């Protein structure tokens, strides 16, 4: 079931004319108000008719909803009222989205130590990739679908600034830090690969280093993936305020569709996953 939502901007039936001493509102005539409302209705009808046509072509049941108000507020309200599983919003200015055959998808999923990250992984495996495989391919073709599991390690600083001259870390400290990051990555990938294997979906693990939001967009473009998936709370090792900017950055800079998966409220997104043991 798909809900097609169009939000009309609220129409003010008054204006404040410019000029010195002009502080009284001038109300629009009834004919002007009705004309604007009619124009909005025609625009909504045209948009939704086109969307309904696309749904029919793909044999997908759809219902249309029209709201008036602030777009971001009304969309969130509609999503909550209809209890939808996924909210999809287009992004302007990023160029056209290439069409891909639904029997061959390349999806990139950003992973970290958080529960929210793995919730996003399992949600996509169950609700996006698995239905595609079940309806469009047979067992021999499942391996064509590919998931890139990407974990980005933050750059490891080789120096610190104490109260005095710069102090560089020793080689042993550097190696210890890198080893710890490798252990974390191994633990994340071990769990993620098992989830993909259980769903019979081919996956490749990629460990990267750098600024997470920038690296994710770069890898997504290099691999030419069809979809980039990130958790709504970003990377668990950073502050929540910064983490939110990861998904926001990807939404505006990735050269492919971006799916942001919001975990349920009861999920503790700050809890880390167990690390791989020897």
Structure explained in plain terms:
- The strands form 4 sheets. This protein has a 5-stranded parallel beta sheet with strand order 9-6-5-10-11, with helices on both faces.
- Residues 92-102, 139-143, 234-243 and 269-278 have low confidence and may be disordered.
- The longest helix is centred in the first third of the chain and has 28 residues, at 30-57.
- The chain has helices spanning 30-57, 71-82, 115-136, 171-198, 212-223, 240-253, and strands spanning 2-8, 14-15, 26-27, 62-68, 106-111, 146-153, 159-160, 167-168, 202-209, 227-231, 258-261.
- It has 2 domains: 2-82, no CATH class; 106-261, Rossmann fold.
- By secondary structure, the chain is α/β, with parallel strands linked by helices.
- 23% of the residues are buried.
């Amino acid at each position: 079931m798909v809900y097609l939502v169009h939000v009309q901007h609220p129409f003010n039936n008054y204006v404040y004319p410019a000029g010195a001493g002009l502080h009284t509102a001038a109300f629009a005539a009834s004919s002007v108000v009705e004309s604007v409302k009619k124009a909005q209705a025609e625009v909504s009808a045209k948009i939704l008719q086109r969307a309904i046509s696309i749904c029919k072509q793909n044999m997908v049941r759809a219902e249309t909803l029209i709201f008036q108000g602030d777009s971001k507020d009304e969309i969130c309200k509609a999503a909550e009222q209809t209890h939808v599983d996924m909210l999809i919003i287009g992004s302007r200015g990023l160029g056209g989205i290439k069409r891909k055959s639904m029997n061959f998808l390349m999806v990139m999923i950003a992973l970290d130590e958080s529960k929210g990250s793995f919730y996003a992984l399992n949600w996509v495996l169950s609700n996006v990739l698995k239905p595609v495989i079940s309806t469009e391919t047979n067992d021999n073709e499942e391996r064509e679908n590919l998931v890139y599991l990407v974990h980005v390690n933050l750059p490891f600083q080789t120096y610190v600034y104490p109260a005095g001259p710069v102090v560089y870390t020793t080689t042993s400290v550097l190696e210890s830090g890198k080893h710890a990051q490798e252990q974390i990555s191994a633990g994340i990938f071990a769990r993620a690969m098992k989830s993909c294997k259980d769903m019979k979906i081919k996956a490749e693990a990629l460990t990267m280093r750098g600024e997470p939001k920038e690296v994710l967009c770069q890898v997504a473009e290099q691999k030419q993936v069809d979809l980039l998936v990130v958790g709504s709370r970003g990377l668990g090792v950073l502050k929540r305020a910064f983490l939110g900017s990861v998904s926001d950055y990807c939404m505006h800079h990735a050269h492919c569709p971006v799916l942001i998966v919001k975990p349920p409220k009861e999920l503790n997104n700050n809890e880390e996953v167990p690390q791989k043991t020897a």
